[in-house]
Here is the input.
Amino acid sequence: MTDTHNTDRPRAYSYVRFSTPEQAKGDSFRRQTEAAARYAATHGLMLDDKFSFHDLGMSAFQGRNKAEGMLGEFLSFVRSGDIAKGSYLLVENLDRVSRENALDALDTLKDIAKAGITVVTLNDGREYTHESLRRNPIDLMVAVMMFMRANEESETKARRLKEAWAAKRTKAMSEGRPMTRLCPGWLRLREDKSGYDPIGEREAIVRQVFAWTLEGKGQHWIADTLNREGVPVFGRGVMWHRSYIKKMLADPSTVGRYTPHRKVNGRRIPETPVEGYFPAVVDMAVWERVQALGSGRSSSTADALQNILAGLASCPLCGATMTRMNKGKRSRPSFVCVRAKGGLCRPYKSVPVEDVQDAIQGNAYRFDVELPSADAELEVERSRLQAAIGGIEDAIDKIVEAVGRAGHSQALLDRLALLEADKDNHNDQLDQVEREIAAALTHRTQNTVGRLVEALEADDVGTANVQLRSLFNTTVVDWRSGNLTFHWRHVPDETIEVMFAWPAEDTAE
Here is the structure.
């Protein structure tokens, strides 16, 4: 047991690290902690029980345990004086401290020793101090050799892992075989590992999120609605957040696409996407419309240059996308329902693109005079978030007071960390709402309409398309009445109707 009464003895601090979560299931943690306790007892040290320095499942290959982990925390406590000079750091081996290249790893050891800390390797009982590293060439040589061997082992593992993943990627691209058990939250790996299957109720949620987005619902609204309805989150979270909705809407795996990555100098570099790797849970047409809404860019640049309603035009009968079609040099480019092209929507009608574009150019002023009022939901959302942040801050104050009374308490610190993370998430949401309010819907739309009018007057179809998608959710091209019905993105219940030249060319087929 730790002796907490004799304060004259030097204090020793145990540092436990292993690289993979799987090692936590084995004997690594017990072996390292028991070895530290034996050394402290044998050498008259008082093993500290106030601070815990454990980097479990964290690699030292790139120095993360120093930059992000508890080894860095140990050094900060030494610098602040919370850990006194003359103390001991007990590690199983030098490779627990660092697996970087020998030069960088030696710098880490020297930083600890310079701070007045003796580093003890428990496997051989060797002590490293600033003085021994300066004056004892054997200690320096042993440290360098240990770091070289550790780094070489990690380099070999990294190379083999890279080769194994390259082989998996090749197999995935050629045979469609899964590379890993990991997959989006709405899918699961089959028992025979031959592929992935959608999880029924989660698949429905993903589709609903995309549908709500196309209806003009914001990410805050979607997250709050799922929380209010008690829809379970995908994974270990306790509630839905806007950030997860945002990631889901931008995730190409919803349409079956997987993009492998490789690391180059610590950066993740995307490689060639694998189409059809995952089962698609969202139609491609829906995906492209949502991406157009989110990015403010056309889902197809070439199409946007020629199609003023790219990503917006929809069929008045079935609601499917209407795409631009050109049958040849002698025909006029026309809008046609994608389902009608396959015989799934009748009757087949084509609407000349030129007639639609002329109507939009001739009625640009109406977008300005028929602006909807600012979205009152934003004000309600701001008030809700401000109240929630206030409640979290009160809870944080109470935790801080409790820590002040009770001293170091891991349970209280863990609770404090959760509250801080929750506060950060709410602040992110509030910042987004504030930005939307700061550029209030009416003012933002006026500016966008101004850019739209300029683009239309300059016959800049591509820019006009971008501005239209910033303003509207969909545009119904109704060949039955000769109406274009524009649905505002942020106010779905309000529309603008524009007449176009119909039936200038009735092309029923």
